[in-house]
Design a protein that fits this description.
This protein has 226 residues and is α/β, with parallel strands linked by helices. The protein has helices at 13-27, 45-66, 81-92, 114-119, 154-166, 196-203; strands at residues 4-8, 31-38, 73-77, 96-99, 126-129, 143-147, 169-170, 178-181, 209-211. The chain has a nine-stranded mixed sheet with strand order 3-2-1-4-5-9-8-6-7, sandwiched between helices. α1 (13-27) crosses α2. The longest helix is centred in the first third of the chain and has 22 residues, at 45-66.
Protein backbone atom coordinates (compact mmCIF):
# COMPACT_ATOMS: atom_id res chain seq x y z
CA UNK A 1 0.00 0.00 0.00
CA UNK A 2 1.04 3.61 -0.48
CA UNK A 3 0.88 5.53 2.81
CA UNK A 4 -0.98 8.83 2.81
CA UNK A 5 0.81 11.69 4.53
CA UNK A 6 -0.73 15.08 5.33
CA UNK A 7 1.59 17.98 6.17
CA UNK A 8 0.10 20.73 8.34
CA UNK A 9 1.30 23.91 6.65
CA UNK A 10 0.91 27.66 7.18
CA UNK A 11 4.14 28.88 5.54
CA UNK A 12 5.93 29.66 8.81
CA UNK A 13 9.58 28.55 9.06
CA UNK A 14 8.68 25.70 11.41
CA UNK A 15 6.01 24.44 9.02
CA UNK A 16 8.62 24.60 6.27
CA UNK A 17 10.52 22.15 8.48
CA UNK A 18 7.41 19.94 8.36
CA UNK A 19 7.43 20.09 4.56
CA UNK A 20 11.09 19.06 4.53
CA UNK A 21 10.17 16.00 6.61
CA UNK A 22 7.20 15.36 4.33
CA UNK A 23 9.64 15.36 1.43
CA UNK A 24 11.58 12.58 3.13
CA UNK A 25 8.41 10.49 3.43
CA UNK A 26 7.68 11.17 -0.23
CA UNK A 27 11.15 9.84 -1.08
CA UNK A 28 10.24 6.69 0.86
CA UNK A 29 7.19 6.13 -1.36
CA UNK A 30 4.40 7.97 0.47
CA UNK A 31 1.70 10.10 -1.14
CA UNK A 32 2.11 13.54 0.45
CA UNK A 33 -0.48 16.32 0.53
CA UNK A 34 -0.61 19.71 2.27
CA UNK A 35 -3.29 21.10 4.57
CA UNK A 36 -3.95 24.62 5.79
CA UNK A 37 -6.58 25.18 8.48
CA UNK A 38 -8.54 28.41 8.28
CA UNK A 39 -10.26 29.25 11.54
CA UNK A 40 -13.15 31.38 10.26
CA UNK A 41 -14.78 32.83 7.16
CA UNK A 42 -14.11 36.44 6.26
CA UNK A 43 -16.70 39.09 7.01
CA UNK A 44 -17.59 39.99 3.43
CA UNK A 45 -17.45 38.40 -0.02
CA UNK A 46 -14.48 40.38 -1.37
CA UNK A 47 -12.39 39.71 1.71
CA UNK A 48 -13.35 36.03 1.61
CA UNK A 49 -12.10 35.79 -1.99
CA UNK A 50 -8.80 37.38 -0.99
CA UNK A 51 -8.45 35.04 2.00
CA UNK A 52 -9.14 32.01 -0.17
CA UNK A 53 -6.64 33.11 -2.82
CA UNK A 54 -4.04 33.75 -0.12
CA UNK A 55 -4.58 30.25 1.27
CA UNK A 56 -4.16 28.73 -2.19
CA UNK A 57 -0.98 30.73 -2.78
CA UNK A 58 0.37 29.65 0.59
CA UNK A 59 -0.22 25.99 -0.23
CA UNK A 60 1.27 26.51 -3.67
CA UNK A 61 4.48 27.66 -2.04
CA UNK A 62 4.39 24.60 0.18
CA UNK A 63 4.03 22.33 -2.86
CA UNK A 64 7.05 24.04 -4.40
CA UNK A 65 9.08 23.36 -1.25
CA UNK A 66 7.86 19.78 -1.28
CA UNK A 67 9.23 19.37 -4.79
CA UNK A 68 5.83 18.26 -6.10
CA UNK A 69 3.83 21.05 -7.77
CA UNK A 70 0.97 18.60 -8.38
CA UNK A 71 0.64 17.66 -4.69
CA UNK A 72 -2.93 17.63 -3.41
CA UNK A 73 -3.80 20.63 -1.23
CA UNK A 74 -6.53 20.92 1.38
CA UNK A 75 -8.01 24.13 2.77
CA UNK A 76 -9.85 23.18 5.96
CA UNK A 77 -12.30 25.44 7.78
CA UNK A 78 -12.35 24.74 11.51
CA UNK A 79 -11.94 26.84 14.64
CA UNK A 80 -9.50 24.21 15.93
CA UNK A 81 -6.42 23.17 13.95
CA UNK A 82 -6.32 19.80 15.70
CA UNK A 83 -10.00 19.06 15.07
CA UNK A 84 -9.76 20.18 11.45
CA UNK A 85 -6.77 17.93 10.80
CA UNK A 86 -8.36 15.03 12.68
CA UNK A 87 -11.47 15.24 10.50
CA UNK A 88 -9.37 15.57 7.34
CA UNK A 89 -7.22 12.58 8.29
CA UNK A 90 -10.29 10.44 8.93
CA UNK A 91 -11.93 11.52 5.69
CA UNK A 92 -8.80 10.97 3.58
CA UNK A 93 -7.69 7.80 5.33
CA UNK A 94 -4.34 9.41 6.16
CA UNK A 95 -1.62 7.32 7.75
CA UNK A 96 0.62 10.16 9.01
CA UNK A 97 0.11 13.82 9.93
CA UNK A 98 3.32 15.87 9.88
CA UNK A 99 3.92 18.96 12.01
CA UNK A 100 6.74 21.38 12.63
CA UNK A 101 7.85 22.26 16.13
CA UNK A 102 6.53 25.06 18.27
CA UNK A 103 7.54 28.66 17.57
CA UNK A 104 10.87 29.66 19.13
CA UNK A 105 11.99 26.04 19.56
CA UNK A 106 15.79 25.85 19.72
CA UNK A 107 17.33 24.64 16.43
CA UNK A 108 17.80 20.88 16.33
CA UNK A 109 15.21 20.15 19.01
CA UNK A 110 11.59 19.00 18.96
CA UNK A 111 8.76 20.76 20.80
CA UNK A 112 5.19 19.73 19.90
CA UNK A 113 2.60 22.40 19.17
CA UNK A 114 -0.62 22.46 21.19
CA UNK A 115 -2.50 21.05 18.18
CA UNK A 116 0.14 18.32 17.83
CA UNK A 117 -0.25 17.35 21.49
CA UNK A 118 -4.00 17.02 21.01
CA UNK A 119 -3.49 14.58 18.15
CA UNK A 120 -0.91 12.66 20.18
CA UNK A 121 -3.68 12.05 22.72
CA UNK A 122 -5.85 9.53 20.89
CA UNK A 123 -5.47 10.81 17.33
CA UNK A 124 -6.47 8.55 14.39
CA UNK A 125 -3.14 8.60 12.53
CA UNK A 126 0.58 8.49 13.15
CA UNK A 127 2.09 11.85 14.08
CA UNK A 128 5.49 13.02 12.82
CA UNK A 129 7.26 16.11 14.15
CA UNK A 130 10.21 17.87 12.54
CA UNK A 131 12.82 19.54 14.73
CA UNK A 132 13.32 23.27 14.38
CA UNK A 133 15.68 24.07 11.51
CA UNK A 134 15.17 20.72 9.77
CA UNK A 135 14.53 22.53 6.47
CA UNK A 136 18.16 23.68 6.48
CA UNK A 137 19.58 20.16 6.65
CA UNK A 138 20.47 18.75 3.24
CA UNK A 139 20.86 15.11 4.18
CA UNK A 140 18.78 11.98 4.01
CA UNK A 141 17.76 9.63 6.80
CA UNK A 142 20.43 6.98 7.25
CA UNK A 143 19.72 5.66 10.74
CA UNK A 144 16.38 4.98 12.44
CA UNK A 145 15.94 4.41 16.15
CA UNK A 146 13.00 2.69 17.84
CA UNK A 147 11.28 3.44 21.14
CA UNK A 148 8.89 0.47 21.29
CA UNK A 149 5.68 -0.08 23.19
CA UNK A 150 5.20 -3.25 25.25
CA UNK A 151 3.56 -6.13 23.38
CA UNK A 152 3.32 -4.18 20.10
CA UNK A 153 5.69 -4.52 17.15
CA UNK A 154 4.27 -1.55 15.21
CA UNK A 155 7.17 0.80 15.92
CA UNK A 156 9.82 -1.76 14.96
CA UNK A 157 7.91 -2.91 11.87
CA UNK A 158 7.49 0.70 10.74
CA UNK A 159 11.17 1.46 11.31
CA UNK A 160 12.25 -1.56 9.27
CA UNK A 161 9.87 -0.72 6.41
CA UNK A 162 11.11 2.87 6.24
CA UNK A 163 14.73 1.74 6.50
CA UNK A 164 14.27 -0.55 3.50
CA UNK A 165 12.75 2.25 1.40
CA UNK A 166 15.37 4.82 2.40
CA UNK A 167 18.30 2.43 2.32
CA UNK A 168 18.77 3.24 6.00
CA UNK A 169 19.73 1.19 9.04
CA UNK A 170 17.73 0.50 12.17
CA UNK A 171 20.11 1.16 15.03
CA UNK A 172 20.00 2.40 18.62
CA UNK A 173 23.67 3.40 18.61
CA UNK A 174 24.19 7.15 18.87
CA UNK A 175 21.55 9.66 17.83
CA UNK A 176 19.37 8.41 14.93
CA UNK A 177 18.19 10.54 12.01
CA UNK A 178 14.59 9.50 12.84
CA UNK A 179 13.09 8.11 16.04
CA UNK A 180 10.00 5.88 15.72
CA UNK A 181 7.91 5.69 18.88
CA UNK A 182 5.18 3.20 19.72
CA UNK A 183 1.89 3.96 21.47
CA UNK A 184 1.05 2.84 24.98
CA UNK A 185 -0.87 -0.41 25.61
CA UNK A 186 -4.04 1.47 26.65
CA UNK A 187 -4.35 3.12 23.24
CA UNK A 188 -7.24 2.13 21.04
CA UNK A 189 -6.12 0.12 18.01
CA UNK A 190 -5.19 2.49 15.19
CA UNK A 191 -4.81 5.48 17.53
CA UNK A 192 -1.80 7.11 19.15
CA UNK A 193 -1.27 7.62 22.87
CA UNK A 194 2.01 8.34 24.67
CA UNK A 195 3.52 7.29 27.95
CA UNK A 196 5.29 9.95 30.03
CA UNK A 197 8.63 8.35 29.10
CA UNK A 198 7.74 8.52 25.40
CA UNK A 199 6.92 12.22 25.80
CA UNK A 200 10.35 12.70 27.33
CA UNK A 201 11.92 10.81 24.42
CA UNK A 202 10.30 13.30 22.03
CA UNK A 203 11.52 16.30 24.02
CA UNK A 204 15.10 15.01 24.01
CA UNK A 205 15.19 13.40 20.56
CA UNK A 206 17.15 16.01 18.62
CA UNK A 207 15.83 14.43 15.40
CA UNK A 208 12.48 13.98 13.65
CA UNK A 209 10.10 11.69 15.53
CA UNK A 210 7.28 9.49 14.26
CA UNK A 211 4.67 8.23 16.73
CA UNK A 212 2.81 5.24 15.32
CA UNK A 213 -0.67 4.05 16.31
CA UNK A 214 -1.23 1.02 18.49
CA UNK A 215 -1.18 -2.26 16.52
CA UNK A 216 -0.89 -0.49 13.16
CA UNK A 217 2.51 -0.28 11.48
CA UNK A 218 3.11 2.06 8.55
CA UNK A 219 3.63 -0.03 5.42
CA UNK A 220 5.82 1.18 2.57
CA UNK A 221 5.84 -0.47 -0.86
CA UNK A 222 8.52 1.30 -2.89
CA UNK A 223 10.30 4.65 -3.02
CA UNK A 224 9.42 7.42 -5.45
CA UNK A 225 11.68 7.42 -8.46
CA UNK A 226 12.54 10.66 -10.18
Amino acid sequence: MTPKVIVSYDDTPNDQDAVALGRRFREAGAEVSLAYVRHSLAGDADLEIREELAARALLGHGAHLLGDPTAERHIVLNASTADGLRELAEREGADIIVFGSEYRTAPGTVSPLTSTKRLLDGGPAAVAIAPAGFRELDRGIKTIGVYPSPDDTSAGDTARALAESWGAEVSMDGRPDLLVIGSRPEAQRGHVLLTALAEYAIDTAGSPVLVVPRDEAIEIVSPVTA
